[in-house]
Specification:
alpha/beta, 3 domains, about 45% helix
């Protein structure tokens, strides 16, 4: 399994989650053993000029925080892109560290159907309209080299257009939305054969009072004998023990009982988050 993340240039530079995940990238319990970040750098986050969007020269500079190698490649050169991607994959497989591929390209159309980029980037979009699309540019090169014939190229385009047209036609006949197909790992038993969720009623998950009392007593005791515990903590444990005896539950004890009952069934529980170890949760 290889982890690949696709980013936009403005998001890569501007979203805090990118910086946060880079700092998680090499932590023992969080690492994916190297993620390949592909940045589609079309130099326009919505309609923001890069000079107004970030303070660094490249959107990918945020990856330098973990010394990830960053490959800037001209996306108009498909062979260079393929070469760089295979080097990135090799790096990731050899060193199990993050690596970034910065596809330096452009966006031919606006942000959406309503957006006319000529309003905000007139000079840039005059250049873009003159630009030969990468598919034509590469096809012309391959035909000139004699690698493919014009007929082969046109057949390939026709084949792809047909796939798109057929899918578009089929989409009009769809009456049912299959949720199952959208999930990367559908939970077994959660959906019926048609891909629709089963009834959302939950099976009873209650446990006996005897088991709750047992968990409450364990949660309010100290596991080590003759251990001198902080007086503030012993007060909390004493109050918790009294609650269990009086058949009362507060939020923290309810959580303990929930985790405890799952553990009693032999299911591993892992609490994650920066305050867990300090016991703030």
């Amino acid at each position: 399994v290889m982890s690949i993340l696709l980013h936009g240039d403005a998001a890569f530079a501007g979203q805090g989650v990118v910086y946060e995940t880079f700092h998680l990238s090499d932590l023992p319990s969080y690492t994916t053993n190297g993620t390949i970040h592909v940045v589609v750098n079309n130099q326009i986050g919505f309609t923001t000029d890069p000079r107004m969007a970030r303070s660094s020269p490249y959107p990918t500079d945020v990856a330098r925080v973990v010394n990830a190698p960053i490959f800037h490649v001209n996306a108009d050169d498909p062979e260079a892109v393929m070469y760089v991607c295979s080097v990135a994959a090799e790096w990731r497989n050899t060193f199990n560290k993050d690596v970034v591929v910065d596809l330096v390209c452009y966006r031919r159309r606006g942000h959406n159907e309503m957006d006319e980029p000529m309003f905000t980037q007139p000079l840039m979009y005059k250049q873009i309209h003159k630009q030969v699309p990468v598919l034509k540019k590469y096809a012309d090169k391959l035909i000139a080299d004699g690698t493919v014939t014009l007929q082969e190229f046109e057949e390939e385009i026709a084949k792809y257009d047909k796939i798109c047209e057929e899918a578009y036609t089929r989409s009009k006949d769809k009456k049912i939305l299959h949720i199952k197909h959208w999930l990367d790992s559908p939970w077994p038993g959660f959906f019926n054969a048609d891909g629709e969720p089963k009834s959302m009623s939950c099976p009873p998950t209650g446990i006996s009072e005897e088991l709750l009392t047992h968990i409450g007593n364990v949660a309010s005791s100290v596991p080590v004998e003759d251990f001198k515990i902080h007086s503030g903590l012993s007060r909390i444990l004493k109050a918790r023990s009294e609650m269990t005896q009086n058949r009362l539950v507060d939020w923290a004890l309810a959580e303990y009982m929930a985790f405890g009952s799952v553990l009693k069934e032999g299911i591993h529980v892992r609490l994650s988050g920066q305050d867990v170890e300090r016991g703030t949760f």
